[in-house]
């Protein structure tokens, strides 16, 4: 699945997860709205009708009293209209699911109409006793019966309304719980999908970024965790990265071969030049004038510098090709330190720098290293220390025992190295930004060679520095190393 498809599906799933609770809530609200309309159109209207029916029955009672005292046509018509209106309202109750009450009220209204006619006739005939008897025996009981039925209908309606309200409340609670549950579920699903999308995209991106940073730091052996056979954009990038590192590795090998061949070919003409310069210095071709001697000294210095650079390039090429040869032999530690102290004593006096060499208790008297190579490493580190340390500063070489070997530290109080540049100081031709503090320019190969020599001995080297406060190089070597040929790996003992 491509990255675009993955994003599209993820967004669709998240949208569905967020819309589903909303759709559920809307559907539930529509149901509640419908039930509320039913409650309003049926029960509320029924309640109003019952109230009007009760008022109508009360009006019939008043009209019945008026009919007894004033038995004229107007009273009779008013009574008839009141009963007719009450009958119509009782019939309307059947439309609100109150049919049994409507029927009973209708019967009572008919009884009231019959009693009212008889009572009206008796009143017109001046039969007062008969009219009162009809009122007490027929009209009033029928009116009370109708009123009691209306009250019963009102009570039934009240209970039905209460049940409806309770049902609506329960439905609201259920809807609320369902909506919250659906929302939580949707959020969980959306979160899982979002996490999956983020992880499936960010992890390859971080891996690719790490790989590119490794390539920028000249580490071409870094392998991506993103499979190159993926069928999405990251697979394409992984294949491109793999092809890029392959081509860069080939270019690096070609460069190393070129440097090795070029350095080897340069040694012969340089040695010839130095040889002829020595012959000139010995006067084989005649005595040199003072001006010629000055030019001769300059040529000797430059030729030796060029020869040293070529040798360094050859050393780097040999170690990179696995052909750096070690010749370990027994070395007396005190002899090694005394030689270094003597070699740099004059330089320390010239630069007015305090130079101190210290051997801690517990260091073995004899080690088994390649003396020339270790001298080259320590000489390079001490030369750098003196080069970057100002007048009045300190340079220290401290040797102490560690588990399984020996630790040597070269410390100075010089310019220091910027912290962001420390990871690259052992790269070939790399020079930190503190070169303006140096007493002489370098080639950028010394530390690279030192690291390769230490690695060939099975040891480690690291640098700790604080800008403006000084630098410390720490070397750890096993006490004894085996002889290493061109194609043998080093074994410590």
What this model shows, in words?
There is one protein chain. The protein is of the alpha+beta class. The protein has 3 domains: 3-193, Four Helix Bundle (Hemerythrin (Met), subunit A) (Up-down Bundle), CATH 1.20.120; 233-320, Orthogonal Bundle (Helix Hairpins); 329-478, Histidine kinase-like ATPase, C-terminal domain (Heat Shock Protein 90), CATH 3.30.565.10. It has helices at residues 3-69, 73-92, 99-124, 128-216, 233-281, 290-320, 333-351, 371-388, 446-456, and strands spanning 329-332, 354-359, 366-369, 394-402, 405-412, 460-466, 470-478. The strands form 2 sheets. Strands 2-4-5-7-6 form a 5-stranded mixed β-sheet, with helices on one face. Strands 1-3 form a two-stranded antiparallel sheet. The chain is rod-shaped, with a radius of gyration of 55 Å.
Share of helical residues? 55-70%
Distance between the termini: 53 Å
Integer tally of domains: 3
Sheet with the most strands, sense and barrel status? 5 strands, mixed
Give unreliable regions as ranges: 437-441, 485-493
CATH topology of the largest domain: Four Helix Bundle (Hemerythrin (Met), subunit A)
Q: What CATH architecture of the largest domain would you give?
A: Up-down Bundle
**Count of alpha and pi helical runs:** 9
At the first level of CATH, the class of the largest domain is Mainly Alpha
What amount of the residues lies in strands?
5-15%
Query: What's the count of strands?
Result: 7
Decide which structural class fits the backbone.
alpha+beta
